[in-house]
Backbone:
């Protein structure tokens, strides 16, 4: 048994800090919650109201533009049609809305932080351990304060998803910018480009494959959170998996699980295709 005189606990400190946060910034968190809830409910309503054939056509157009391969496009559209055929279309749209909102927030946070980390060694030194914690800390741990601040529902699910999914994008944005050839940057400096011109004209375009890989990883990690998100009130395919677990309905859980896999495959192929070099028709 470990000696008690060497033991201590940080639980009281953390609880006091969270309580103080709730008391002082409760109104701000409520406003943020209402804004995010409006955004996700509006997007979800739009996706669910759109005709299924229009959604499939839109996905097909995006897939063809990304891959320039008709066979891959037809396979993606066919897989999504299969999800609708087993009666999970509405749940698919709910999951897609949650994932899109979480991914957009992760992109808005991750890319600027990655750029700042690439420009500041001190910030990178402070940021990397924090990203390690965000990726390795069990999601149920940071669900507790998120639930205290925002309650049950879609909003805490979005925040939990962003915390889990943003680190890969920050890391890969930082990596992509730092890997831009020094000779290229020296040439740009010689032509008198300022920092903004260097960033938007050279660094970001050259780092785009790495950034797209980060967006791809962020999207995949966001999808991996849908079942956990369903435990705190988020609807969608994760809820179907959870119901399958609770009722020991293997078939129901398998259908929803395969639907999540299909959505992940479609998004993965599209984002990977956009992250590659310029497309060649017929390939």
Residues:
């Amino acid at each position: 048994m470990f000696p008690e005189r060497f033991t201590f606990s940080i639980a009281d400190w953390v609880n006091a800090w969270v309580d103080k946060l709730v008391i002082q910034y409760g109104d701000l968190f409520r406003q943020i919650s209402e804004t995010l809830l409006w955004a996700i409910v509006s997007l979800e309503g739009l996706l669910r109201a759109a005709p299924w054939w229009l959604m499939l056509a839109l996905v097909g157009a995006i897939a063809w533009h990304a891959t320039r391969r008709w066979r891959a496009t037809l396979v993606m559209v066919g897989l999504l049609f299969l999800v609708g055929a087993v009666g999970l279309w509405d749940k698919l749209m709910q999951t897609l809305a949650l994932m899109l909102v979480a991914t957009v927030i992760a992109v808005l946070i991750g890319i600027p932080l990655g750029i700042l980390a690439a420009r500041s060694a001190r910030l990178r030194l402070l940021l990397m351990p924090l990203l390690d914690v965000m990726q390795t800390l069990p999601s149920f741990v940071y669900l507790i304060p998120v639930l205290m601040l925002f309650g049950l529902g879609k909003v805490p699910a979005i925040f939990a998803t962003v915390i889990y999914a943003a680190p890969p994008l920050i890391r890969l944005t930082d990596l992509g910018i730092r890997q831009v050839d020094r000779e290229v940057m020296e040439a740009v400096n010689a032509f008198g480009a300022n920092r903004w011109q260097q960033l938007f004209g050279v660094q970001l375009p050259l780092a785009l494959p790495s950034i797209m890989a980060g967006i791809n990883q962020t999207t995949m990690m966001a999808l991996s959170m849908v079942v956990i998100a369903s435990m705190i009130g988020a609807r969608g395919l994760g809820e179907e998996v959870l119901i399958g677990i609770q009722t020991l309905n293997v078939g129901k859980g398998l259908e929803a699980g395969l639907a999540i896999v299909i959505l992940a495959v479609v998004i993965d192929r599209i984002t990977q295709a956009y992250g590659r070099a310029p497309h060649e028709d017929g390939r």
